[in-house]
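Task 17 of the worksheet. Students: predict the tertiary structure of the chain below and write it out as C-alpha cells. Keep your answer in the requested format; marks are given for formatting as well as content.
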Amino acid sequence: MGTPPAGERAASSNIVGDRVVLGPLRRDLIPLYARWVNDFGTQRTLGADPLPRDLGAVTDHYDHFTARPDCAQFTIYEHASWRPIGITELQAIDLHHGTAEFVIFIGEAALRGRGYGTEATMLLLDYAFATLDLQSVVLRVYEYNLAGIGAYRRAGFRPIGRQRQCHWLGGRFWDAIQMECLREDFAAARSSVHGGGEG
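Model answer:
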C-alpha cells in the first residue's frame, strides 16, 4: 500500500504519534478488518473463539459499533508508511463517571512486538484522560498474553483482579486479568517514558 495523498492522510488522522497515527475506522477498510479478525493470532489476543467471520458479519459489527455513542474507535496506521496495521478503541465510555474499557490489537502479524501497540495504547490513554476527561480506564487480558500485559504495564495499567481458569485455549484453562489505569497512573507512566525510564 503506497503512501496516500496528503488530503487523505489528513482526513485519516486524529492523533499523531512518533511511530503510529490513530484515525477513524473506514468502511473501505472492512475487507482488511475482516482479514485481521480471521487471523488466529488476533483471535487469541482478543480471547475470541477461533471461528471464521465472513464479510457480512464483520460489516454488521462495524455498523453496530460505529453507531454507538459510547465508543471511540480508531484505525492504527504505521506512521512512516501510512499502512493500516490494527485497531484500538474505548468502549462503554461513561462521561458522567469518567470510565471506559480499552481494547487493542495489531492485525498485521509481522508488525507485532515492535512497539506499535505500546505507543497506540499511550496515545489512546492520553485521548481518554486529556480529551474525554476520564478518570479510569479498564481492560481484560488473558494471562498467556505476556506481550500485551507488558505493554499495558508500561502505559500505567495495574492488575486489580483475576477470574481464574475461565478461558480454554491450547489444551488448558487460563485466567483473565482485569487491569486498570487511573489518570495519575498514566501521568506517572508517561513521565517515566519521557524521562528515559523505558528502553
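Marker's comment: The domain at 6-194 is CATH 3.40.630.30 (Aminopeptidase). Strands lie at 15-16, 20-24, 72-78, 83-94, 99-106, 136-142, 158-169, 172-182.
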